[in-house]
Write a structure and sequence with these properties.
This protein has 215 residues and is mostly helical. It contains seven helices and two strands; from the N terminus they run αββαααααα. It is 64% helix and 5% strand. β1 and β2 form a beta hairpin.
Amino acid sequence: MKFPEAHTPIYLRHTILLFLLLCMKLSFGQTIFQDTMRIQAIVYQGDTIPLSVLSNIYVYDQLTASQKQARANYNRLRNAVYVTYPYARKAGIVLNDINQKLTFISDKPNRRKYINSRERELKKEFTTPLTNLSIYQGKVLMKLINRETGNNCYEIIKEYQGGLTARLYQTIAFFFNSNLKQPYDSKDQDRIIEQIVREVQRLYGYAEISKSQNL
């Protein structure tokens, strides 16, 4: 049976209408899904409310004059330890080796000969870099040499050069507001220096070689 070409069958019109309604429904459903946002939530006193984490807010206050001075003093000390600890460490290795070797040399001429040979080694290694240190850095260096060897610089000089030479260097140190006999106290007076030394050791992988008994 053929239908006139000028008229569309009713069942075909119903089919087209249903197809259009289905497309609209799918389109509407898709739009709703795209507009949905998933957020965190928390149940508070029986109510479900949105949850969000805000970024950290840092509040800084201005340092007082004393705090600024304390920070400047610490930075100065920290810089001095970073500069001088490698020298103190090298000197400590040499001086500790000298002390060990001298325990097997009892004859004074042979001791003097051995000391002179090692003294030339020390001068060659340290004369140029140590002359570039400031007075403050020199004080810190003497502290660190005491730390590495267990002896203050006065005792070391007296052992290798004699008491007169040691007193001469002590007098020179006095004019520079320093002291060759200054001790090293890692638990109290030099606690901050010790903390910085440990920091340097961790940073550069230095093993502990100190002969000091009060670490």
